[in-house]
C-alpha cells in the first residue's frame, strides 16, 4: 500500500490519476493482458483442444442473437471454436510477439546508438548510413523480406516450429533504427557534459561510462519509444499474420483470427472477424494513449 500511496502522491501518479483517458486506457490494457496471460484458467474453452470441439456448434452466433448459446458468449467460428476463448489465446501470442520484438529492437538499437554517439567518426557514419538506408524501406517490407528468406532456406515443417521466433526476429530487426537514432542524439548531449568528461579524465573505461552514466539518462525517451513501438509491433504482427506469413494456424494470433473471419464476413458470420478486430483496435489505441501520456510526462518541455 505504501508503494501505491507514494505513486499517487508523485507527479507521475497525479498526472495519471487526473486523466480519465489515460486511466481508461490503462484499464483496457490491464484487462487484455490479464485475460491473455490467464487464458488457461479464465477462458471458457480451450480452442486448441480438438477433442473438445463440436463441429455441430460451428458458426454459432453470439449469445444475444437468435440461435446463440451462452456457453459461447461471442459465438463460434467455422471449426466450432469459441471466439472469446480464441481471442484470449490469440492475444497472448500477439502480446508475446510484441514484447519480444520490442526487446530485440532495444537490444540492437540502444548499444548501436550509444556506440555511434560516444565514439563518433567513421563508426558513427557507418552505423547511421546503414540506419538511413533501412529507413527508406517500410518496416513491413523488411519483415516480409526476412520471413521470405527464412521460408526459402528452411523446410516447411521446421519453419512452422520456429515461425513465432522468425516473426519476432523479423519485426525486431525492422524497428531498431528509431532506438539507435534517439539514443545517439542523447549520447551526443551527455558526452559533452562535465561528469562524463571527468570520468574520461580519471581513466574510466568507455563501456563503464556508457553503462553507468549515459544509459540511465537515455532511459526515459527509450521507454516512450518502446511503449509506442509495442503498439506498432502488435499491428505489424497482425498484418503479417493476416497476410498468411505470420504465426501458423495452430498458434493463431489476433491477425490470424481476423484473416479467418474475413472469409466469412460477407456470408453473415460477422462476429468471427469483428470481435478480434475490436480487441486489436482497443489494445493498440490504449497502448498508444499510454505512450503519448508517458511522452508528455517525461518531456515537460512538450507541455
TrEMBL record:
The keyword Zinc does not apply. It is found in: Cell membrane. Keywords: Cell membrane, Membrane, Transmembrane, Transmembrane helix, Transport. Pfam families: BPD_transp_1. SUPFAM superfamilies: MetI-like. The chain crosses the membrane at residues 21-43, 93-114, 126-146, 158-177, 214-235, 270-291. Gene3D superfamilies: MetI-like (1.10.3720.10). Belongs to the binding-protein-dependent transport system permease family. This is Peptide/nickel transport system permease protein. It comes from Aquamicrobium defluvii.
Amino acid at each position: 500500500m505504501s508503494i501505491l500511496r507514494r505513486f499517487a502522491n508523485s507527479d507521475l501518479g497525479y498526472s495519471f490519476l487526473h486523466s480519465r483517458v489515460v486511466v481508461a486506457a490503462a484499464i483496457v490494457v490491464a484487462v487484455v493482458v490479464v485475460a491473455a496471460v490467464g487464458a488457461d484458467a479464465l477462458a471458457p474453452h480451450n480452442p486448441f483442444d480438438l477433442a473438445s470441439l463440436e463441429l455441430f456448434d460451428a458458426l454459432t452466433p453470439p449469445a444475444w442473437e437468435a440461435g446463440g448459446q451462452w456457453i459461447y458468449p461471442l459465438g463460434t467460428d467455422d471449426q466450432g471454436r469459441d471466439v472469446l476463448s480464441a481471442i484470449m489465446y490469440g492475444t497472448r501470442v500477439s502480446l508475446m510477439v510484441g514484447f519480444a520484438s520490442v526487446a530485440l529492437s532495444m537490444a540492437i538499437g540502444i548499444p548501436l546508438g550509444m556506440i555511434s554517439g560516444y565514439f563518433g567518426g567513421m563508426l558513427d557514419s557507418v552505423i547511421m548510413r546503414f540506419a538511413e538506408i533501412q529507413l527508406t524501406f517500410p518496416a513491413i517490407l523488411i519483415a516480409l523480406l526476412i520471413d521470405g528468406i527464412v521460408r526459402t532456406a528452411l523446410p516447411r515443417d521446421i519453419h512452422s516450429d520456429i515461425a513465432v521466433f522468425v516473426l519476432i526476429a523479423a519485426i525486431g530487426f525492422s524497428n531498431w533504427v528509431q532506438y539507435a537514432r534517439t539514443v545517439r542524439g542523447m549520447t551526443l548531449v551527455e558526452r559533452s557534459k562535465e561528469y562524463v568528461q571527468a570520468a574520461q579524465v580519471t581513466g574510466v573505461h568507455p563501456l563503464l561510462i556508457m553503462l553507468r552514466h549515459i544509459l540511465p539518462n537515455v532511459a526515459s525517451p527509450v521507454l516512450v519509444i518502446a511503449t509506442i513501438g509495442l503498439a506498432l509491433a502488435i499491428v505489424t504482427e497482425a498484418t503479417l499474420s493476416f497476410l498468411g506469413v505470420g504465426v501458423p494456424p495452430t498458434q493463431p494470433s489476433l491477425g490470424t483470427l481476423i484473416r479467418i473471419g474475413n472469409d466469412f464476413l460477407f456470408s453473415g458470420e460477422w462476429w468471427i472477424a469483428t470481435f478480434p478486430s475490436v480487441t486489436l483496435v482497443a489494445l493498440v489505441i490504449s497502448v498508444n494513449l499510454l505512450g503519448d501520456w508517458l511522452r508528455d510526462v517525461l518531456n515537460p518541455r512538450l507541455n
